[in-house]
Design goal:
2 strands; 11 helices; globular; 74% helix; mainly alpha
Length: 231
């Protein structure tokens, strides 16, 4: 049977994202980078005006982020979703199951570019911590995660991990102003980076598990303290 090469070639051409997908990507990246705070409200009209698009794709993007658990709707727009401690526990449990083997797999497929991005992000995060630039620290921490996640060969797994990481953004915003928490995160980043450089997949898996558990413990402590204060 003859093959229509024109059709075959055309089908492999990457599809450009539509408006909804573009807005979704912009808002989600802002969430990941810590640019959307606990007190912020996302209103479709305001975002549409900012991005010079119609309200419908913005509304659809915000609804998608809501269905994925990153936002929740209110009478005055959308806000970052607040999880109960039990829900947070489930999310961290899933992360400790997924992230160590994913990081180990990424280390086996590590490329110089990805390792360089991890190292650069770590260096910038260290400087941001020393200067007390919390916003920059959060951005560098996010870039570090992206660097190793992009090297995970199973993209479905990497996407799932990314979503669960995004789910704890509220707690991350609550804890990043604590210098001890930032130091703990930096220690975990440094240990993971060195493990990646060693090429030892089992060491990567072990250090990722340790880092995930330590981060979870800090988040739980901050979360409970916030509940006790009634804020």
């Amino acid at each position: 049977m003859a093959v229509d090469m024109t059709t075959t070639t055309h089908s492999k051409t990457p599809r450009k994202p539509n408006l909804r997908e573009r807005v979704y990507g912009i808002v989600r990246e802002r969430i990941q980078m810590g640019q959307i705070r606990l007190e912020d409200r996302l209103v479709d009209h305001d975002i549409a005006c900012e991005l010079h698009v119609s309200r419908m794709p913005v509304r659809e993007a915000l609804m998608q982020l809501t269905s994925e658990g990153l936002l929740e709707g209110t009478a005055r727009g959308f806000v970052l979703r607040r999880y109960t401690l039990a829900q947070m526990n489930e999310i961290f449990e899933i992360r400790t199951l997924l992230e160590p083997p994913a990081a180990a797999s990424a280390s086996l497929h590590a490329q110089p570019k990805g390792l360089a991005e991890m190292g650069a992000s770590l260096e910038k995060a260290q400087h941001a911590h020393e200067t007390g630039d919390i916003d920059e620290f959060m951005r560098d921490n996010a870039r570090f995660r992206w660097a190793w996640l992009t090297m995970v060969p199973n993209r479905q797994l990497a996407d799932a991990i990314s979503r669960y990481i995004d789910h704890v953004q509220v707690v991350r915003l609550m804890t990043m102003d604590d210098s001890e928490v930032r130091e703990l995160i930096l220690d975990g980043m440094q240990g993971l980076y060195q493990a990646f450089l060693s090429g030892d997949a089992e060491l990567v898996r072990t250090r990722m598990l340790t880092h995930a558990r330590a981060a979870a413990a800090c988040y739980y402590n901050a979360y409970q303290q916030r509940l006790e204060r009634g804020s």
